[in-house]
Amino acid sequence: MHHYHLLDKDRPVKDVPKSVKSFLVLALMLQLLWHSQQGPVVAEAEDLAAPLSVRTYVMSSLGEPIAASKLLNLWLQAFDNQPGASLSFHQLNYPRLTKWLDTILELDPEGHYPMLVAARVYGGIKDPAKQRIMMDYIFYKFNENPDKYWRWLAHAIITAKHEIKDDNLALKYAHALAEKATGKNVPYWARDMKIIVLEDMGEIEAAKILVGALIDSKEITDPYELRFLTHKIEILEKKQLKKQQSVEK
Questions:
Q1: Would you say 102 and 94 are in contact if contact means Cβ atoms under 8 Å apart?
Q2: Which pLDDT belongs to residue 225?
Q3: What are the angstrom distances between the C-alpha of 239 and each of 207, 214, 247?
Q4: How confident is the model at residue 8 (pLDDT cuts 50, 70, 90)?
C-alpha cells in the first residue's frame, strides 16, 4: 500500500488551488462518462462504477492525495442524487462501495470519515444483509489496525447485536476487540464488551468465568475497571442464582 503524505491532513479543501480541484473533477467526469457509454443510465445499484487506482487520483489532483480524498468523499456521498435518477442506499452495490471506502482511506490513511459512513450511514440502513457487509468491512479494517479502528468495531458490535440481531456475530467482534485492541488508548469498556454480550446471550457462567479470570490475572490496574468487574461479578452471581431457582421450580 502506498501512503502519500504530500499535504497536511488538517488542510481544508477550500485551501486547495482551483487548478487541483478542476483536475480531479475532470477525472471523475471522464470516469463517469466512460461508464455511461457502456449502456443506458438506469437507476440501479450497478450504476456505482468501480474506483480508479489510487495513483490515478493522486496524479489527477497534482499530488494532493488528501484533497482528492475529501473530494471523493463528497462525490460518493452525493452519488445517490443523480440527474434523472434517484438511488437509495439500499440499491447501492455494497461490495463495490467498500472498494471506494478503501480507496479514500488509502488517499488519506489518517482519516476516519470512511469508517464513520460505513458504520453510521451505509451501515445504518434497515437491511441486515447489507449491514453485514459494512460491519464485516469494519472488522476487516480493524484487523489491519486494531488500536486505530477499535471504536468502529465497538459500533459494529452494537449494530450486530441490536439491529442485525445476531448474537454470535456480536460475540465474534467483541472477542476480537478484547484480544487485539490492547493499546493504552482503548478504554476498558470497549475491551469488556465481550462480557456484556455473553451476559445478554444468557451465557452467565461463561461471562462470570471471564470476569473472574480478568480480576485474577493481576493485569487490571485501573481502579474504575476493577470496580466495574467486581460489581459485574455480583450481578452475574445474582442472575445465576435466580436462573437456578427458576429451574428448580
A1: no
A2: 85
A3: 11, 20, 12
A4: very low
CB 184: neighbour CB atoms within 10 A?
A: 6
Cα(126)–Cα(213) distance, integer angstroms: 38
* 142 exposure class (CB count in 10 Å sphere: 0-12, 13-18, 19+): buried
Q: CA-CA distance, 117 to 148, in Å (whole number)? A: 16
Inter-axis angle of helices 94-107 and 113-120, to 10 degrees? 160
Residues 34-49: pLDDT tens digits?
A: 444 444 434 444 467 8
Q: 100-158: per-residue pLDDT in tens?
A: 999 999 998 888 889 999 998 899 998 999 999 999 999 999 999 999 999 999 999 99
Rounded to whole angstroms, the Cα distance separating 139 from 96 reads: 17
| Model confidence, pTM | 0.72
Go through the chain and tell me how many residues it has. Answer: 249
**pLDDT the model gives residue 181:** 94
Half-sphere exposure (Cβ direction) of 133: Cα atoms closer than 13 Å = 17
- Per the DSSP assignment, residues forming a β-bridge with 81 are 86
